[in-house]
Design goal:
- The chain has 127 residues and is α+β, with helices and mostly antiparallel strands.
- The chain has one domain (3-125): 60s Ribosomal Protein L30, Chain: A.
- It has helices at residues 47-64, 85-95; strands at 3-6, 20-23, 26-32, 72-79, 102-107, 118-125.
- A six-stranded mixed β-sheet has the order 1-2-3-6-4-5, covered by helices on one side.
- Helix 1 packs across helix 2.
Length: 127
């Protein structure tokens, strides 16, 4: 089965990885942090704002790959601070009030930049 990569912003392709990769009807979204389309940190110090931006980035990656938020089957969130879990969970609940995707949350010591509090990766299955 051929693997195809997708970039929500073809003018700002990251090197070494793809924001989204599709194999058959499965889309894998790389971990998304709270960076806007220009690469600026969104919501510095604010886990809720960062979570919202992460999900916006996931949606953009899914769209580029021909999928949508309703196709999400699994999300994994990485939090630097366990105290930020309620903010993350409330954003997740607002997006998926019923029948949300399978979800895991992992507490970690750091992300790629000290400015990031949240990173979320996702898997979607498209019918």
């Amino acid at each position: 089965m051929a693997r195809k990569t997708f970039f929500p912003n073809p003018d700002k392709k990251p090197s070494g990885f793809s924001p989204a990769t599709r194999a058959g009807n499965t889309v894998y979204v790389s971990g998304q942090v709270a960076a806007d389309a220009q690469g600026n940190v969104v919501g510095k110090g604010d886990a809720r704002a960062q979570t919202e931006q992460c999900f916006k980035n996931i949606e953009a990656a899914l769209t580029a790959a021909g999928a949508g938020m309703d196709d999400l089957t699994k999300i994994t969130c990485f939090l630097v601070n366990g105290d930020d879990y309620p903010a993350y969970a409330s954003v997740r609940l607002s997006l998926f009030p019923e029948n949300g995707p399978a979800s895991s949350t992992v507490m970690i010591s750091a992300l790629v930049s000290a400015d990031y509090l949240v990173e979320i990766e996702a898997i979607a299955v498209v019918e």
